[in-house]
Amino acid sequence: MKKLSILCALVLMGTTAFAQQRISDGTSNAAINPNAIVEIQSNNKGLLLPRVALTGTANAAPLSAHVAGMHVYNTATVGDVTPGEYFNDGKKWKQVLADIVPAYYTRLAWSGTANQNFPASVGTQINVGTWTIPKTGKYLILYHSFLRSVANSNSVVSFYVRPRLNTTIVRDEETYLYIGNYVNTHYSTVITATVGQVLSFDIAPTSAMYIEQSLGWRNAFDIIFVGE
Q1: Hey, which bits of the chain come out as E strands?
Q2: Assuming Cys at both sites, which of 3, 108, 157, 170 could form a disulfide with 221, CB separation 3.0 to 4.6 Å?
Q3: What's the pLDDT at 159?
Q4: Based on the domain organization, do 59 and 153 belong to the same domain?
Q5: How many CB atoms within 10 Å of residue 201?
């Protein structure tokens, strides 16, 4: 009888190994979805992912290798990872985000107690401060400018907006404008940046321009993380 019981148990184990599986705490006993190999059912409990300390999106650790489809909950704040749910695409970790994290947006507004001059053909750092990149990826930059021509005459003038990462120019794009006295223009570009890099901006006009202190607040950069 004992041998028969063992035999029946082995047969049942062999059968369930090739069947769909339902894990339930008894509060829900709905039929398993026909497309699921495993379904977890409960009316008052959730799925708790393994909690691990990642070291960076490019590093598999604490796993021994990147495995596509792997899901974990990261507990560490280091490099370019913060606490939250991550999945692995086979090459790196990616955070599961419901929307853009507010920390990945900032506005750098001009400030000063006097006019700021931009000499002709020279790159001058605009007084908006700097921003340390919080996450590796692409960033949309929107520059709202309100500049004044030193010549105060109607002429076609161009100026260059130069984003810098750790002092290295990553864009050097020319913007043409028709100047009478004041000029209000909007400039946009996308850059790729690495976590920890420091972002700043230069303005380089073809003829002398300046920001008037009383209207300086109209000069600002919006910086928005748009993805990897």
Answers
A1: 21-24, 38-41, 51-52, 71-74, 84-88, 93-95, 105-109, 116-118, 124-125, 131-132, 137-149, 155-165, 168-169, 173-179, 182-193, 198-205, 209-211, 220-227
A2: 108
A3: 86
A4: no
A5: 23
Structural domain for 207, as ranges:
105-227
pLDDT band at 91 (very low <50, low <70, confident <90, very high): very high
Q: How many domains does the chain have?
A: 2
Q: How many CB atoms lie within 10 A of CB 186?
A: 9
Answer yes or no: do 77 and 117 share one domain: no
C-alpha–C-alpha distance, residues 191 and 197, integer Å? 12
Q: Is residue 131 included in any domain, yes or no?
A: yes
List, for residues 17-73, the tens digit of each pLDDT value: 567 787 888 888 788 888 888 888 888 888 899 999 999 999 999 999 999 999 999
Could you tell me the pTM of the whole model?
0.61
| Cα distance between residue 128 and residue 131, in whole Å | 9
Give percent of the chain above pLDDT 70.
Answer: 84
Token representation of residue 98: 């419901």
